[in-house]
Structures are given as structure tokens and as C-alpha cells.
Amino acid sequence: MAIANILLVDDEIPFLETMTKRLTKREFITESASGAPEAIRMLEINSLIEVVILDVKMPEMDGLSALKIIRQRFPLVEVIMLTGHATIESAIEGMKLGAFDYLMKPCDMEQLVSKVREAAMKKRRHEEKIIEAELKKITVSRI
Amino acid sequence: MNQRSLLKNPYYRSLINKMVFIAIAVSFAPMLVVSGSMLNRFSISHNEKLYAHLGELVLKHRQNIDGFLVEKLNNIRFMAKSFDIEDLKNEKFLRNNLAALQTEYGSVFEDLGFINEEGIQVTYAGPFKLEKASYSNSEWFRKAINSDYFISDVFLGLRGTPHFIITVRLKNNGTPWILRATINFAAFNSLVENLRIGETGFAFILNSKGEFQSKPFFEVTHRKPYSFYESIKAGRKTKDGLFFSEIADDSGSENIYVASLIKNEDWILIYRQDKSDAFADLNQAKEAAIFIIFMGGIVIIVTSFLLSRWMVTKIAKADWEKELMNQQVIETGKLASLGELASGIAHEINNPVAIMVEEAGWVNDLMEDERLVSKENRDEIERALAQIKTQGKRCREITQKLLSFARKTVTSSEDVTINELIKEVIGFCAQRAKFGNVVINSKLQENLPVMQLSNSELQQVLLNLLNNAMDALEGNKGGNITVTSDLEGNEVVIRVEDDGPGIPKVNLGRIFDPFFTTKPVGKGTGLGLSICYGIIKEMGGEITVSSVIDAGTTFHVRLPFKKNN
Known about the structure:
The structure holds two protein chains of two kinds.
Chain A: E1 5-9, H1 13-25, E2 29-33, H2 36-45, E3 51-55, H3 63-73, E4 78-83, H4 88-96, E5 101-104, H5 109-142
Parallel strand pairs in A: 1-2, 1-3, 3-4, 4-5
Chain B: H1 3-7, H2 10-82, H3 85-89, H4 91-105, E1 109-115, E2 121-125, H5 139-145, E3 149-151, E4 164-172, E5 175-183, H6 185-193, E6 202-207, H7 225-233, E7 236-237, E8 242-248, E9 254-262, E10 267-274, H8 275-278, H9 280-369, H10 375-406, E11 414-416, H11 418-435, E12 438-444, E13 451-453, H12 455-474, E14 479-488, E15 491-498, H13 505-508, H14 528-538, E16 542-548, E17 552-560
Helix pairs in contact in B: 2-9, 9-10, 11-12, 12-14
């Protein structure tokens, strides 16, 4: 099993490409999207995606708006905000909207890897709890 | 800035002078005009009343003197008409009549005489031995023999003492006779003298030649008596026959003269008074008025000066505060625009730097798999990649500070114990201080109020100030830092004081400007103190600096608190 399935979202294509390659090299299954609408479409198609690394400042749709949609439609997917424009306000806003964490560009790869792992673990635990709850329901109904 | 230094400014000094001048002019001018015109009206009115009063007195006195003379003349005329020539030739009869007159009028009638047409005194009644005395050569006799009655001027005559006579002419078979009475000079003189006003006012009589007909109470010295008489008559004449004049005597003192002709205009009754004596009341009133104006003037000057000074101090203070506010507005505007700029720059730089760092990281990742490169080159590539990462991190730190500076703070306030916070920050710095040979002391006032503010932000400020102090001291091979806390009025004051090299005066004014730094390139961004300034301003406080070269620098952080905190 791969370490985690990641969707990397950023409008900076060179950053997107290099970061994808570096995460893939670290055995993450990494998808990439150059904007929020594309990322949402990919999440609809690929249900294996566990962690979204989301840039805050993007054209078309900004990261915080995208975060709201993701939390609504894909509540189990964890989101790490990554931006070159970190402010306390946007960080607080992101955390309020349910982001897993908030990192500032340029970030340390090891720190990012660590955060992605933690996010993936959280997502998996969450899924396990849900499955356990479902199993309990099924068991109880059979009994 | 204190009141004295504000008022040293030439502009404010000139403003005080102008205000004092205007206040004095505006207050003085009406006061002087009103006082002057009132005093003038009062003087005119006083003059008129004084002269009217004196005129009235002289008129009454003229009536008295004329009445006296007419009465005495009538007495003699009565005698002349009532008795025969033969009776009057009888000495005893004459003595009896003199006694009767003296019984009636006292010593006014000195003697009586009956004179024939040759001027020989046929009969005489009186204290002198003037029986058979001859008056044929006397001037008065010549005048008396030619008129029905006659009153002479004062003269010495045969007796050698001043007197004057009243004569009445009688005719017996065409032969003229003269009945003569001598009027006691002392009695007449006391009547004339009976007009005394003030210290120098008195009356006297002159004949038409300017000779005295009464003894003046004070000496009257005029070189030419006749011209004096003329001068009196040349004065302002009223319809009552009064003459008013002001003439200086030989000593130069100015005198008031009020005169009236008497005895069928042969004599002139003169009242004289020293002008300063006559106007003593007016002069006293003038002096009192001048004293009141003078005192009022002093009060006006002092009040104008104090009021102007007070007002200019208020203006100067308001100007100073306005100037300070303008500076703060400029500073705030500068910071705000720089903040916007910094925010944009941070974002624009962070993305390419992120790409650069990630690319370097990617090369590094690839290098782990690459075995073709020689060890020497590999080491060099790895060093270069590490350098790219290091510099990338530095860029990030700079942009983080820029963002922190640009940040529009949304801070959460909490209960902060200032002394605890200071101790905590000193603790953070302990390790660095130890290596830098810096001793950090603290003098903390106990029982400071608990403040409601952002703990992390105040920590950031103090940490920044301590780091700056340590930077200054480390360059100086160590030293001392003292952190104090005090309660001053409604403010908690934190001071960070070092005994380092101090800040040159030219840099003090710019110390809180963004990007201003005296540290070597790469060591400081010039944003630390700007951020501190912004944070303390947000808290409603104030941060200031004072520094003396080679003595040290002190940063003062003033934080207001409310008692309900």
C-alpha cells in the first residue's frame, strides 16, 4: 500500500510538476491539478485520494472557497493548505473551515511529508471508525 | 515638550507680543478717551462753577462796601441838611453829634470837622488837634468845594495815618461850607478784608491810579501798579460789571483775579486767589483719576500679558500636538502603504523561491540515485544545493517578516501579567546572553495590574528589543541590559535599557522606519522595530527611544490600562 494518495493543487505549473515528482519519489501516489475546479473534478473521479495539498491564492477559485466545497462534498478527505501568502487571518479561516494544517511556501519537504502522513493516518482512522460503526450496525441488525 | 521650550520659539514670542499690544491698545484706547473726555468736561464744568461762585461773592462784597460808603455819606448829608451853619460852628454841638455817630456805628467815624471856603477848619470834634487846621492846599478840599458830596481816596493827611474822608458841601448866602467826617481805616479795611476763601483768597481795593485803598492780606507785588490796574480791567467783562483775568505775579505764580468797580467807578474791588489753591479740588480729582488710570493700566498690562501667554501656550501646545499627529499620520500612512507593498512582494517572491527550492530539492533527490558523478563533483553539487536551500529559507524568513509587518492584526486579547511575561522573555534570551557575555537584569514593580492584550505580540516586541540590545552589546564585547517595569499614572511602562554604544542622533528619528537598519547586510531586515511600533500602536500604547552615544540606549514601552481591566 502506498504511503498516501495525494492531490496537489497549485496554479504554479513548475512548482506543481517538481513537487509531484518529489512526492512520487517518496512513494506517494500523487495527482496534480492546476486549479480548484479541476481538483474538485478529480476528487469526484478518484475516490482514492486521501490528502489534498491546496494552494490558497489561485485564479478562478481561491483555496479557501475550494476548501469549503471539499469539506462539504468529500468530508473524509484531509486538506493541507499551502501558500506563499500566509496571514494569520487566512490561517485562522482555513483552520475554522476544517483544514488539517497550514504550511507556508517554500516549505521543508520533510515537514510536508510528515504532515501528509499525519493527515493520511487521520483520514484512515476516521474511515476505520466509520466502517466499524457500519459493521456494528449490520451486526446489530442481523442479531 | 514643556511650556518654556514651546514659548522660546520666535513665532510664539512674536504672537505673545502682538496679542499683548492689541489687548493693551483695545483696552487702553477707550479707557483713555473716556477718562480724558470726562476729565475735560469735569474741568470745564468746575472752572465755570468756580468763576461763577467767585463772581457772586465779589458782587455781594461790592454791595457791602458800596452800601457802607453810601450809608456813611448819608449820615453826614443828613447832619448837613438837618442843622444850621451856626450849630455846626459850635464845637460842642459837633462833639455831641460825633459821640452820637460813634454810639451808633462804633469807631467807624473817627472825627468831624466844619470847614469854611478858605479851607480853614472852623470847628473840629475828634481825637486829634486839628482845630483851625488849613486844608486850602489839599487836593481833596479842591474837589470837595466843587461838588455837593465827596469821598476821598485813602491818604495820610495832617495826622500821618491812612484814612479817608467823606465831605458834604453846604451853602449859606452863597458861601460854601464843608462838613467833613473821617472814616476809620481799620474799620473799613476789616470790611474789605472780610472776603477770605481757601488759603490764599483775599480782597483789596485799588483807586484808578492803581494805589491801594485797603491793606492787602498778602503782599501784592507788581512793578507798575497802574498797568496792573489796567490789566485787571482788560480781563473778561461780564454784564454784571465783573472782570475775570488770570495774571502771573512777579514770582511767576499764576493768580485768578475777579474785580468790580465801586464808588462810582473811582475804585476797583479786586479778589485775588492763587490758581493752584482755587483749583485744589480739581487738581486732587485729576490726581485721583490719573492714579486710577495708572493702576488700571498696570492691571490691564499684567492681565494682557498673562492672558496672552496662557492663550499662546495653549495654541503652541495644540500646534505641537497637531504636528505630532501629522507625523503619526504620515508614519501610519507610510507603514500602511509599505505594508500593502510588502504583502504583494512576499507573495510574488515566495512562489518563485518555492519553485527554486523545490527544484533544488528535486536535483538532490535525483543525486541520491546518480552514481556517475565523481565524488568531488558530487560533494560540490550537494554543497551548492544546500546553499540554494539555505538562501531559500532566508528569503522565506524575510518574506514572513514582511508579511508580519503588513499584517492587519486580528489579535486575541487575554489576561497578561507583565512581570511574568518579562521573566519569560528574559528566559528565552538567557542562553544567547550567556554566550554574548551579556548580563540581563530586571527591576520589576510588584502588583502591576493584569493587562488585557495579546500575549504573543507583546512577547514578540520584548524579544525584539532584547535581541537588538544584545546585538548592540555583542558588537561591544558584552555589557548589561536592564528590563524594568513601572506603573506611571494609567500606564504600565516597560523599559529595556542597555549600556551599549548608543544610537547616533541622526539615526534616532528613523529607527522605527521600515527597512531602516544599521546592522550588516544579511543580519537585519530593518523590519523588527517597525513591527514593534505597529504592535504597540495597535495596543493603544507608545514606544519611544532615548539614546546617548557611548552611554547606552533605552526603549520605553508605554501601555495604557483601564481600571476595569
